[in-house]
Amino acid sequence: MRDSVSTVRRVSDDATALVEAFRARTERQPAGVWAAPGRVNLIGEHTDYNDGYVMPFALAQRVLIAAAPRQDGLWSVTSLNNHSTETFQAADLQPGMTGWQAYVAGVVWALKGAGHRIGGADLVLSSDVPVGAGLSSSAALECAVLSALADLNELDIAGLERAKLARRSENAFVGAPTGLMDQAASTLCTAGHALFFDCRTAGAEQVRFDTAGAGLEILVLDTKTPHALVDSEYAARRASCEAAARLLGVAALRDVINLDTALEQLADPVIQRRVRHVVSENARVLEAVKVLRAGRIADLAPLLDASHESMRDDFEITVPQVDLAVEVARASGATGARMTGGGFGGCIIALVPAGEAERVGSDIVHSFAAAGFGQPMYFTAVPSAGAQRLH
Ligand code: GLA
C-alpha cells in the first residue's frame, strides 16, 4: 500500500518542513501553521443541497498552511505542490477568477463580503489530499486559508460560520454549485468520529466511529477516473432535484415524507428516480446514525451497498470503473462498499475486516489492469480532526 500512497504524499510532509519553506521564501518566521483536512463521506450523497442529512468524516490527509501578515495589502500564496507563487490584491478579487489561487482569493473575498477587515498576508501551503478524487481537496484548501486568515486578523468566527463562508467562496467566487457538506466536514469533524450533519438546521452531532474497536477498517480507493462531466452533471442533478421539489410543492426533497405518494405525483421516470435516490438516501443516513450510536459499525455494510445501488441505478452518477471497484471489493471480502463524493469517477469506500484493506485494494488494482483501466490508488482512512491551528 505504501507505493500507492506515495503518489499523494505532500511535498513538505510536516509542519516543520513547511516552516522552513516559508522562511526560505519570505526570509521571516510564519506567525503560525494551520491545517484543514479532506473528507470521506460515509453516507448521504447528493442530500446536502436537498436540505437533507450527511455523515462525512475528516481524513488524515490535509492542507497545511504557514502564514504571516504583510503590510502592503497584497496576498502572496505559494503552493509547494504546484511549485508556483501567485499574488493578488483587493482589486483582483473578482468572482470567476480561475486557477488554484481562486480557492484562496475566494476566501478573502467571502470574508470581506461578510464585513471582516482582512489584511495582506504571505501564505505557503502544501497538501496531500488527492486532487480531483472527490475527497474535497478544494474544501480543505478553503478551510485552511480561512483558519489562517481568521487568526491573522484576530477574527472570532464560529466553526459553522467558517464552513458557510468557505462554501460561499466555492459557490459564488469559484462558481461550483455545491452544498455545505465538504466545508462542514473539513471544519467541524473531530478525530475518531463521523459527523452527522443536518443540512437544513445545521445541527451537528459527533458520532463515535471506532472502526478498529469493531475489528474493521475503511479502505478508500481512488479510481483515478477523469471526471470531465462532473461539473455539468452535478449541476444537472441539482436542477432536477429542485424541479422535483417544485412539482411536489415542498421546499426541498428533504420534506418528502411518503415516497410512494410523491412518485405517483411525478410523471417523468428520470425525475422519479432522482427523487427515490434522495429520499431513500436520507433514510439510510438516519439508519446509519442509529447503527453508529449503538456501536454496531458492522451493520453499516448493507446501508453502504444500498447507497451504491441507489447512486448507480437511480441517481445515475457512477461510472464503470467505480462500479467495478465496488463489485471487486465485495467479492474480495468487503462487507459493504459504495462510491463516495459527487460522482462520475472519484473514490469508493469499502468496509473491510481489520488487516484486509491491503488485499482488497490490491485485488481491485489487478481487476483494473485486466479491464484495461488505469491504476487506482488506495489507503486506509483514519477519522481525523477538522481544521485547526498547529503552531
Ligand atoms: C460534492 C459537493 C457536496 C455534495 C457531494 C455529493 O462533494 O461538493 O456539496 O453535494 O458532492 O454528496
Quick structural gist:
By secondary structure, this protein is α+β, with helices and mostly antiparallel strands.
What's the structural blueprint in terms of helices and strands?
Layout: H1 2-6, H2 15-26, E1 32-43, E2 53-69, E3 75-79, E4 84-88, H3 102-113, E5 121-127, H4 137-152, H5 159-174, H6 181-188, E6 193-198, E7 204-208, E8 216-222, H7 230-248, H8 259-265, H9 269-293, H10 301-314, H11 320-331, E9 336-340, E10 347-353, H12 357-371, E11 377-380, E12 388-389
Parallel strand pairs: 3-5
Antiparallel strand pairs: 1-2, 1-12, 2-5, 2-6, 3-4, 6-7, 8-10, 8-11, 9-10
Bound molecules: alpha-D-galactopyranose.
Explain the overall architecture.
The chain has 391 residues and is an alpha+beta fold. It has twelve helices and twelve strands. The chain has helices spanning 2-6, 15-26, 102-113, 137-152, 159-174, 181-188, 230-248, 259-265, 269-293, 301-314, 320-331, 357-371; strands at 32-43, 53-69, 75-79, 84-88, 121-127, 193-198, 204-208, 216-222, 336-340, 347-353, 377-380, 388-389. Strands 1, 2, 3, 4, 5, 6, 7 and 12 form an eight-stranded mixed sheet that branches. Strands 9-10-8-11 form a four-stranded antiparallel sheet. Helix 3 crosses helix 5, helix 4 (137-152) crosses helix 6 (181-188) and helix 9 (269-293) runs antiparallel to helix 10. Bound molecules: alpha-D-galactopyranose (GLA). Alpha-D-galactopyranose binds at residues 41, 45-46, 48-49, 178-179, 181-182, 341-342.
